[in-house]
């Protein structure tokens, strides 16, 4: 353990030292932008000479977008669209990186800068392999906000609340996700559900949309690590364990929504009968039969594991 | 539920610190300047009235109706000034429903996010009533707190600071997260060790605090990107210590722990649009209860993952990955110290994916994954499968027909060998006379079929139809087999009439059938008094119908109406008529869920002066579930808020 810590500290300071040798970031960015052979950078003034009229609202909004700084620190419009000299001569959209690009090429442009932490997992992820591009969910040119209050969107539920971080999304969560993931939308309206409809949580409270194992926020860890991020009281480990809990929370629970309380896939005792038999044959204890056949947690209340009782609560 | 003093980093303090930073940000050194300035502001105040019938203060698990009449406040702002972006939101509904958000960003330097929210979650109260009482009833069931209101108030605080320019070679991030959960739960007592046995329900306080501290950096070096994130978690329990065990030792009912974790990731971009990603994750958990009483620290986790993605030829993208996970603890089973904990396991996962774009209209996609989980068992006993092997195949295709009509079809097949199951045979259970049959909660084969059709009829109308069907086959230790099947169909219609009316209609039907198989059909083993053994399939089915309608409408100038209506009907039940044992035919009562819920909201905004609107918000909710063991979240309630909204242009 000590050697591991020392190794990590050594790597950390080593990287700090190396970073001093590579302080310029600008040159690297442009290598990922697809461009025509012979094209050169022409500057924003040339772009705006045509596009300021064609896309008047968009150009106005761009001044307040997250990418407005590229005007000064990068090549402006050509930071993402690539050198525009050939396109500016005849306006041919094939001669500039635009909306006609394949989704993977479009994503490469974004990843040339936004390649850190979670977006490092994008390549090969479920969304990437399903041809979802960054611009399917994110606004690039528009102002930095989720949805303008004055856009008057149709409410997704009766009790939705606002306040989740602006990420320049085209629509707010979970409506954005529901446009493709309709089964999860149906499950969220079931009686027992995480409070997404009520606006207390959003899809990305659990899911890592930019990649990762199963598109979850457990990066390299087990699914139980994701659940115990909030439900920490079940982390354990418990000396008297319930094996199914340790194996996978989703053996018993369905996180999007269930009819049964507590996000259980089936009600007791039927859920338990998937792995356990009934106590019908407690010969000397027939007095408990009536209880044993109804809710297992009447006698085994510490169903997630126990510090106290070998039988998870019973005797 | 009483609120107690918080001992985490005070969210109000964090909010004040964030706002105080603003002047420093304005005068900080900047690498660029922009000329745009903009301020947007919206303030709304309202007085809410409401009422409910049914049970105390809640309709369903999250619709809170309390403190009427009450004043509510909403505030939203966004500010662009030179290189500063500032956004804040505040909503105060009542003490258990609050949201505070602040985002501050300085061009190319750093950004700060602060988020604090509180919400209420109500749990059902179990009256501990048995559906059938056999005489003489020698087991006592008692609800010791019949008027109790179990539920939590959850508060979360998130604070992050990170470098703002992702194009930089070296960026940092740090964060703090806290989650508090306070309230009461209905705790079922353990059976007493001697007769007369009793099962009692009582209210137990809940007071948990989780604090996460995180820091890390991302470093880019040519084609390489490295990221390292370290986090530390502390989980503490403020409620009273738990029950004293029969051996005299005193345990906390919920174990406190701390968790130390590091995630190191690397990415390499290569020619031919090929990239390699790898990460190494390690964490260790130290559990104070285990350490104090069993001399065991907790558990450790290590995993390594590598992934390569490439576009070797035009139109073809491929991905291959491998992951190794190793979980360990020194815990042993309480009944046999030669059997290690189920925590101990190693998982090897590898897979491959391919996407081929046939032409501009058609894309084919194939995924394969193999996952092998190896567990440890005791020397003399096997309680669960030593090796579970799961293979998943997934094929889908997407086609664009007739202009913008899109159709997607997917089929997924899972094949599991030795699914996780209970193999235990408790020899000491002679008293109970039981054999735990080899049932499994995981299907040995599973098929899922999904389809989705998007049809834009015109610029005003588009529709979406989706269908999903799934079936899992389960195999027990004998030739017992059963299956679980579900299907879902959904329909969504969106309509947009110019700028005056837009609405959507959504219908969704979910239906599922499952069979729970009770025990092996072993006639030669006597497990009940008369040699009658329970056997047979118990069909368990659930159905849901969900309808929702939303609209935005400008009936006249200056008046905006928007609303949402959702109606859900759900039921679940088990048919226990096939059970042939005495006294248990009626235990299907506990499976009968019959729920009807409806939620409706209507908001009206009328412009009474420039930038000033009169707002009325009406919310109505109804929730009823005819289930024997859940009470107190049924009810009908409504709120009506009337107020004024002022906003800038």
Q: How are the secondary structure elements laid out?
A:
The complex is a heterodimer of chains A (315) and B (649).
Chain A: H1 2-21, H2 26-29, H3 44-54, H4 56-62, H5 70-73, H6 78-81, H7 85-90, H8 103-111, H9 126-129, H10 175-178, H11 182-188, H12 223-227, H13 243-247, H14 289-292
Helix pairs in contact in A: 3-4
Chain B: H1 11-26, E1 38-54, E2 58-59, E3 63-64, E4 70-81, E5 84-94, E6 97-106, E7 110-122, E8 140-143, E9 151-163, E10 170-188, E11 198-221, E12 224-237, E13 257-270, E14 274-287, H2 288-294, E15 298-313, E16 316-328, E17 345-357, E18 362-375, E19 387-401, E20 405-417, E21 445-456, E22 461-475, E23 481-497, E24 501-517, E25 537-553, E26 559-574, E27 593-609, E28 612-625, E29 635-647
Parallel strand pairs in B: 8-11
Antiparallel strand pairs in B: 1-4, 1-29, 2-3, 4-5, 5-6, 6-7, 7-9, 9-10, 10-11, 11-12, 12-13, 13-14, 14-15, 15-16, 16-17, 17-18, 18-19, 19-20, 20-21, 21-22, 22-23, 23-24, 24-25, 25-26, 26-27, 27-28, 28-29
What does this structure look like?
- The complex is a heterodimer of chains A (315) and B (649).
- With 315 residues, chain A is mainly alpha-helical.
- Chain A contains 14 helices and no strands.
- In chain A, α3 crosses α4.
- Chain A starts with a helix and ends in a 23-residue tail after the last helix.
- With 649 residues, chain B is mainly beta.
- Chain B has two helices and 29 strands.
- Chain B has a 26-stranded antiparallel beta barrel. Chain B has a two-stranded antiparallel ribbon with strand order 2-3.
- In chain B, a hairpin with a 2-residue loop joins β15 and β16.
- The longest helix of chain B is centred in the N-terminal third of the chain and has 16 residues, at 11-26.
- Chain B starts with 10 loop residues before the first helix and ends with a strand.
- Mean pLDDT of chain B is 80; it is low at 1-8, 20-34, 244-251, 425-438 and 520-533.
- At the A-B interface, α1, α2, α5, α11 and α13 of A face β4, β5, β6, β7 and β10 of B.
């Amino acid at each position: 353990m000590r050697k591991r810590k020392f190794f990590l500290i050594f790597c950390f300071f080593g990287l700090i030292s190396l970073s001093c040798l590579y302080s310029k970031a600008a040159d690297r960015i442009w290598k990922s932008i697809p461009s025509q052979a012979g094209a050169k950078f022409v500057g924003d003034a040339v772009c705006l000479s045509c596009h300021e009229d064609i896309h008047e609202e968009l150009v106005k909004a761009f001044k307040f977008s997250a990418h407005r700084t590229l005007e000064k620190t990068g090549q402006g419009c050509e930071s993402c669209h690539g050198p525009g000299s050939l396109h500016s001569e005849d306006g041919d959209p094939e001669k500039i990186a635009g909306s006609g690009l394949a989704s993977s090429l479009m994503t490469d442009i974004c990843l040339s800068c936004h390649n850190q932490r979670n977006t490092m997992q994008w390549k090969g992820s479920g969304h990437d392999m399903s041809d979802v591009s960054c611009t399917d969910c994110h606004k690039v040119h528009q102002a930095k906000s989720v949805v303008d209050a004055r856009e008057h969107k149709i409410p997704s539920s009766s009790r939705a609340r606002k306040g989740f971080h602006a990420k320049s999304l085209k629509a707010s969560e979970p409506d954005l996700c529901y446009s493709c993931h309709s089964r999860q939308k149906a499950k969220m309206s079931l009686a027992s559900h995480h409070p997404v409809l009520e606006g207390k949580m959003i899809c990305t409270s659990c899911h890592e949309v930019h990649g990762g194992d199963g598109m979850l926020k457990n990066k390299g860890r087990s699914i139980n690590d994701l659940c115990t991020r909030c439900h920490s009281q079940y982390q354990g480990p418990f000396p008297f364990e319930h094996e199914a809990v340790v194996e996978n929370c989703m053996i018993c629970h369905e996180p999007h929504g269930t009819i049964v309380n507590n996000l259980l896939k089936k009600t007791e005792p039927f859920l338990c009968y998937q792995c356990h038999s009934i106590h019908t044959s407690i010969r000397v204890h027939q007095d408990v039969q009536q209880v044993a056949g109804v809710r297992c947690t009447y006698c085994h209340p510490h169903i997630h594991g126990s510090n106290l009782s070998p039988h998870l609560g019973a005797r | 539920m009483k609120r107690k003093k918080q001992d985490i980093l005070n969210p109000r303090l964090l909010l004040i610190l964030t706002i105080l930073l603003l002047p420093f940000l304005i005068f900080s050194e900047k690498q660029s300047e922009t000329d745009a300035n903009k301020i947007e502001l919206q303030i709304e105040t309202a007085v809410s009235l409401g009422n409910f019938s049914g049970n105390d203060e809640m309709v369903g698990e999250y619709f809170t109706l309390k403190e009427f009449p009450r004043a509510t406040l909403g505030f939203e702002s966004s500010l662009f000034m030179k290189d500063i972006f500032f956004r804040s939101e505040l909503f105060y509904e009542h003490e258990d429903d609050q949201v505070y958000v602040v985002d501050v960003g300085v061009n190319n330097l750093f950004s700060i996010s602060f988020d604090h929210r509180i919400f209420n979650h109500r749990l059902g109260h179990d009256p501990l009533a048995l559906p059938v009482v056999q005489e003489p009833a020698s087991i006592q069931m008692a609800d010791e707190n019949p008027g109790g209101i179990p539920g939590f108030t959850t508060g979360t605080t998130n604070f992050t600071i990170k470098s703002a320019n992702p194009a930089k070679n070296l960026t940092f991030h740090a964060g703090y997260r806290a989650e508090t959960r306070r309230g009461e739960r209905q705790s079922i007592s353990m059976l007493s060790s001697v007769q007369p046995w009793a099962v009692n329900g009582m209210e137990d306080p809940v007071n948990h605090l989780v604090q996460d501290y995180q820091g890390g950096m991302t470093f880019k070096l040519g084609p390489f990107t490295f990221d390292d994130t370290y986090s530390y978690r502390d989980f503490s329990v403020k409620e009273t210590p738990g029950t004293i065990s029969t051996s005299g030792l005193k345990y906390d009912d919920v174990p406190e722990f701390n968790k130390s974790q590091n995630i190191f990731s690397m990415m390499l971009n290569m020619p031919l649009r090929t990239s390699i990603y790898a990460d190494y994750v390690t964490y260790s958990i130290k559990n104070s209860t285990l350490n104090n009483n069993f001399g065991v620290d907790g558990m450790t986790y290590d995993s390594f993952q590598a992934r390569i993605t490439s576009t070797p030829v035009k139109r073809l993208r491929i991905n291959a990955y491998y992951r190794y996970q190793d979980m360990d603890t020194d815990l042993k089973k309480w009944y046999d110290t030669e059997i290690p904990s189920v925590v101990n396991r190693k998982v090897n996962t590898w897979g491959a994916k391919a996407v081929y774009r046939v032409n501009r209209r058609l894309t084919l996609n194939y995924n394969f994954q193999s996952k092998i989980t190896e567990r440890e068992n005791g020397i003399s006993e096997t309680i669960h499968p030593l090796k579970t092997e799961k293979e998943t195949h997934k094929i889908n295709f997407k086609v664009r027909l007739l202009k913008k009509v899109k159709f997607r079809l997917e089929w997924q097949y899972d094949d599991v060998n030795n699914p996780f199951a209970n193999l235990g045979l408790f020899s000491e259970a002679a008293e109970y006379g039981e054999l735990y049959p080899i049932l499994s909660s995981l299907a040995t084969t599973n098929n899922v079929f999904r389809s989705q059709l998007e049809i834009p009829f015109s610029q005003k109308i588009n529709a979406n139809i989706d269908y999903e069907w799934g079936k899992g086959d389960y195999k027990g230790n004998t030739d017992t087999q059963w299956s679980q099947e579900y299907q879902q169909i959904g329909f969504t219609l969106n309509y947009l009439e110019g700028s005056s009316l837009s609405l959507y209609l959504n219908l969704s039907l979910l239906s599922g059938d499952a069979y729970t198989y009770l025990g092996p059909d072993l006639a030669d083993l006597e497990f009940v008094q008369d040699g009658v053994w329970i056997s047979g399939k118990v069909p368990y089915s659930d159905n849901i119908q969900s309808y929702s309608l939303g609209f935005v409408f400008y009936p006249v100038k200056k008046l905006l109406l928007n609303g949402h209506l959702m109606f859900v009907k759900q039921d679940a039940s088990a048919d226990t008529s096939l059970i042939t044992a005495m006294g248990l035919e009626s235990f299907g009562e506990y499976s009968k869920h019959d729920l009807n819920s409806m939620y409706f909201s209507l908001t009206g905004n009328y412009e009474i002066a420039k930038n000033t609107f009169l707002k009325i918000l009406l919310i109505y909710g109804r929730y009823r579930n005819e289930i024997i063991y859940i009470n107190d979240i049924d009810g009908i309630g409504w709120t009506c808020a009337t107020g004024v909204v002022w906003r800038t242009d």
